[in-house]
Amino acid sequence: MFEDLLGETVVLDMVCPFVYVGTLVEGDHHYVALQDVDVHDLRDSSTTREIYVHEIRLHGLAPNRKRVLVQREQIVSVSRLSDVNS
């Protein structure tokens, strides 16, 4: 399912108030791995998920993690960052 997104910068919308934006490098039935990732806890800001991702699209990604593993069951949606309207 994620094979066509390998090597792409993706946005992971989560069940919890987190957004992950980074390069999808691998995945299995339980986890997906992202590299050069911006992990953002929406509780730490007054912005919405949509505005935050839109700002990344406009101004560029500022990774705060080299690599993360994300549980697939916690992912609500996946999209290419390039598919976010700017």
Number of E-state strands: 5
Structural class: mainly beta
Tell me the span between the first and last alpha carbons.
26 Å
Radius of gyration: 12 Å
- Counting structural domains, the number is 1
Main sheet characteristics:
5 strands, antiparallel
Question: Would you write up a description of this structure?
Answer:
The protein is mainly β and 86 residues long. It has a single domain (3-80), classed as SH3 type barrels, CATH 2.30.30. The protein is built from one helix and five strands; from the N terminus they run βββαββ. Strand 1 and strand 2 form a beta hairpin. The N and C termini lie far apart (26 Å). The mean pLDDT is 94.
Quick overview:
Helices cover 13% and strands 47% of the residues. With 86 residues, the protein is mainly β.
Secondary-structure blueprint:
Layout: E1 9-14, E2 18-27, E3 31-41, H1 49-59, E4 65-71, E5 75-80
Antiparallel strand pairs: 1-2, 1-5, 2-3, 3-4
Keywords:
13% helix, 86 residues, SH3 type barrels, mainly beta, five-stranded antiparallel sheet, 1 helix
